[in-house]
Amino acid sequence: MALYVHKYGGTSVGTTERIKHVAGKVAEARSRGDDIVVVVSAMSGETNKLVAYAREIQEIPASRELDVLLSTGEQVTIALLAMALEQIGCPAVSYTGWQVRIVSDSVHNKARIVSIDTERMTGDLKAGKVVVVAGFQGVTAGGDITTLGRGGSDTTAVALAAALKADECLIYTDVDGVYTTDPRVEPRARRLDRITFEEMLEMASLGSKVLQIRSVEFAGKYNVPLRVLSSFKEGPGTLISYEDAKVEEALISGIAFNRDEAKLTILGVPDRPGVASRILGPIAEANIEIDMIVQNNADDQTTDFTFTVNRNEYRKAFDILEKTCQSLGGRQVTGDDKIVKVSIVGVGMRSHAGIAAKMFEVLAKESINIRMIATSEIKISVVVDEKYLELAVRALHETFELEREKLPSTH
Amino acid sequence: MALYVHKYGGTSVGTTERIKHVAGKVAEARSRGDDIVVVVSAMSGETNKLVAYAREIQEIPASRELDVLLSTGEQVTIALLAMALEQIGCPAVSYTGWQVRIVSDSVHNKARIVSIDTERMTGDLKAGKVVVVAGFQGVTAGGDITTLGRGGSDTTAVALAAALKADECLIYTDVDGVYTTDPRVEPRARRLDRITFEEMLEMASLGSKVLQIRSVEFAGKYNVPLRVLSSFKEGPGTLISYEDAKVEEALISGIAFNRDEAKLTILGVPDRPGVASRILGPIAEANIEIDMIVQNNADDQTTDFTFTVNRNEYRKAFDILEKTCQSLGGRQVTGDDKIVKVSIVGVGMRSHAGIAAKMFEVLAKESINIRMIATSEIKISVVVDEKYLELAVRALHETFELEREKLPSTH
């Protein structure tokens, strides 16, 4: 008898009909003799409705109160799913975050889970019940409600799987797995049977929005095998686990991209120690998240400093940067909010030289100008003009033969 | 400096605009230097929406899960009201039932409050904050969410006022006080400045739906002065407190009525000890609430037994009663779901004979046939045909001169 944690997102529980459908799937899994804990999100649209209410009332909603408000979304779903399970003869019990002591730190709106008390849940499982837990929420040691931030229900599922030592954490979503790239951009994109945590991390952070990045980190840290699969369509999905000998050894597992980027450059800043922090400090203080950072020394005395931010924050970041430029005695601030980032990801590239060269060669052949480059051990990202996105993705997909199933090999 | 508990019902917080309006009223009260605790209901329509969801999923929703579901309604309101207060510069903090340990018994859907932990609230009040508490909900000692049943937010407000030793509990609603009778039936109905707890209890239970009966009981028990007033219109409302020398001493304070009644009679039942419980037992087991009960001995051997139930449960009660009739060897079951109850209420009648006679005389003069009579110390109720409701109320209102303001007198 195994223990599985299932997680169903907002679309999967978007109507009472869909909640009944989920109950059917959970009851079926339970009938195979396994213990099941289900984590659910708010019904799709609910969270946005609540946020809209808050904004009607307060320009920047008080963060503590926003958590009190938003956590009701998941609470509605757990009650309805427990009812749906009971209705089809499957004993079930629902719990909010505070009821199973999903204790978090007190950073409202993006809290981190500190500990989980599994006692109540294991008691219910032993009694033959399905345990339904609200995703996305926790409680501080002092008894305040917190939320884990967008996508936080995935994190809840993984954290519960880790705490309960579950055999697998199944993330049901509206896609049937992780693909080599976005099928809307490259129709020949292929579902991967397996992918490593590290690859998934790079894919997730780069815009393959299947899984929330923190949940993958968490799963990797506690070695919880994670499976992404569809709640509407049968199929094995994609298993995310640690690399092992049997994993298909492709050089590249996938191509991720991010359309929401904008690029800012401060030119001719006197090159002194601490200049990077003086440039990025005010940006960070304004709560603007920075993605890629590149620094070029223009000459001996000055340096050019470039970074990317979310396109929504381009204007705000630009204004801050102009002030910084003045105070640092820089020459000029330039920027471009019509750029995208395209990345190739794969643990295989660790042991293979020449991947980067091959990538740049393909792009050159298609006359795509590279505006920025950043690399990690298992990822190479380039920034290109927005208009080249599709072309770049398709050319790379073909070059690295991602449409073909790879058999395990020994190179 | 005084401490007031304010309670705003669903209509008063039905939109974000109205929540802002409530925030304005609360901040104004706070600015007079008093400590304020606010109890709120779910935004109007929310509870019904949630109940509809539950019914779509489960015929009879699991009671524990229904409480998890319904308690989200008030949780939304507390967060929004706290935000609205912060927005206008009035420091505020919101609490759910479990957060301030409104501990209840574990009778889901109609739990009773056992204790309240005031420590957190008094700390916040001392720190100058307005405390916003979710009405209608509690938590069991074991950590399960409960609700107090319909109108339970009033009970929460009174219980908090008692626990905090508040100077007054102000119930803001969509009417501007307690009237001598329903103004829609008798346009000359008059707002009462004061009424006693006992009178209010009789008025509430008889269908003057201004206040939930349990909250009045509670207020009486803990001697919390209760004021009913409008959240839309300025005015003193009606103060509900213990009778004191200065209270206007009317014979009759008001006329209550209830349109939702149905009457059932079991005829010719052998008159043995225990027959009443054998008749009412199965009704109670089916969770049907009984209002009036009258028993007439038809002869030495048999008895006729009549009671009233809510009209919605007439059919169900009838079926149960037919089975009981068979097993008890009764003659026949009859019933009527086109009846109403009309009651006159007043502490003044304690010391005045002839009130009942006067009531019956008025009804007789209008040719209204009385189908049942029940009396208590401060109330006389009659059941009449539905069609006579308005006529009966107006005739009684005039006879007992309720449209006239009474001055304190010494009789």
Automatic annotation (TrEMBL), chains A, B:
Catalytic activity: L-aspartate + ATP = 4-phospho-L-aspartate + ADP
Pathway membership: Amino-acid biosynthesis; L-methionine biosynthesis via de novo pathway; L-homoserine from L-aspartate: step 1/3; Amino-acid biosynthesis; L-lysine biosynthesis via DAP pathway; (S)-tetrahydrodipicolinate from L-aspartate: step 1/4; Amino-acid biosynthesis; L-threonine biosynthesis; L-threonine from L-aspartate: step 1/5
GO terms (BP aspect): homoserine biosynthetic process; lysine biosynthetic process via diaminopimelate; threonine biosynthetic process
Any one GO CC term of the record: cytosol
Catalytic activity, EC: 2.7.2.4
Sequence similarity: Belongs to the aspartokinase family.
Protein name: Aspartokinase
Organism for this UniProt entry: Candidatus Methylospira mobilis
